[in-house]
Batch of 2 targets.
Target 1
Amino acid sequence: GAGVSQSPSNKVTEKGKDVELRCDPISGHTALYWYRQSLGQGLEFLIYFQGNSAPDKSGLPSDRFSAERTGGSVSTLTIQRTQQEDSAVYLCASSLGWGNQPQHFGDGTRLSIL
Amino acid sequence: KQEVTQIPAALSVPEGENLVLNCSFTDSAIYNLQWFRQDPGKGLTSLLLIQSSQREQTSGRLNASLDKSSGRSTLYIAASQPGDSATYLCAVETSGSRLTFGEGTQLTVNP
């Protein structure tokens, strides 16, 4: 597709369940980023990938969060044993290369933990 | 730790007015500063990217300036239109390619 695609667009799950969020970057973009947008916290960086490698995982809020990227394309963000404070919009972005490039964002996955 | 502040938090103007949104950041060691627009329920749309060595960028009715030494940027919107209504976010890129965002300015342009 022409833009960054994220799925699902909405996810409602019970506390304690695991969830998997998917991001399809723009074709040819080597860098991929995950952010979280929540009330009171604004937009915060989680992790980025250059190719399939994640040089900076320091933004992940806890060890319940993990992410991977395969084939230099699709990425999944996994949250294990979800908590209510995980409720937020999770945004994915991609860019042509690493550093000093405009980041192009998807519409996000709205995650609600009951 | 880099902190980004945007003023005002909300702004309501009549159509046709020129307006200025402000952004400030605490650490001047940035690679670039980016302005984004976010519509309700949507992701972010990149508007302008100013490299750290640049002073300003222009796109149509938008003009963004950067004063890195003082940690400030402004986004100027000329002849505002109702379609400009959205939340405008400022972000700075620091080491590791991460963006640090401000809280945004919610703009309403009234017909």
Target 2
Amino acid sequence: DVKVTQSSRYLVKRTGEKVFLECVQDMDHENMFWYRQDPGLGLRLIYFSYDVKMKEKGDIPEGYSVSREKKERFSLILESASTNQTSMYLCASHPAGRGSHHTGELFFGEGSRLTVL
Amino acid sequence: GDSVTQMEGPVTLSEEAFLTINCTYTATGYPSLFWYVQYPGEGLQLLLKATKADDKGSNKGFEATYRKETTSFHLEKGSVQVSDSAVYFCARVNTGNQFYFGTGTSLTVIP
């Protein structure tokens, strides 16, 4: 069974803290994505990565950075957490690499619910 | 630009009622289309998909047909169950492998 694992289901942090959200996939997928999910706004893409050490900005990258040192792991970093970053964060992976088009699905983790006080 | 628009919720239905959740898209070319479902406390999982015009995706009694002429991919189920209560997302993927999601439609089915 394919698996995308997010390290923390629930986190509570204080304003200004540095936050790491970890995501690991065991499917050898090239593409990995970080979304945030907010009521009434659906899923919004923060960052994505086509390959190791590669990253590209999504629609709302401000206040976030990412790291992809190994193919299976894609980390989302909040350098200085703020209350407007309270949200559900979803990691996903997809098998196609950059330049190739794949009609397959995105595989999601269970989500990390972050509360910033 | 590319986008997906789905009907606003929340939707509340009685068990065995007929369900339709509308979804339309804008895109260049012919994107693959998806419906994802999110059960309470879980991540999103694929419900069904269609990769070309006139394809019908189906799963768990749900169906959706890729209509190029109306740029739509409406989700339907003939008889909903309490266990279908979830949030449903319409999505499309472009040739750059970027996925675009609708805002989600919350469905509650009451016994």
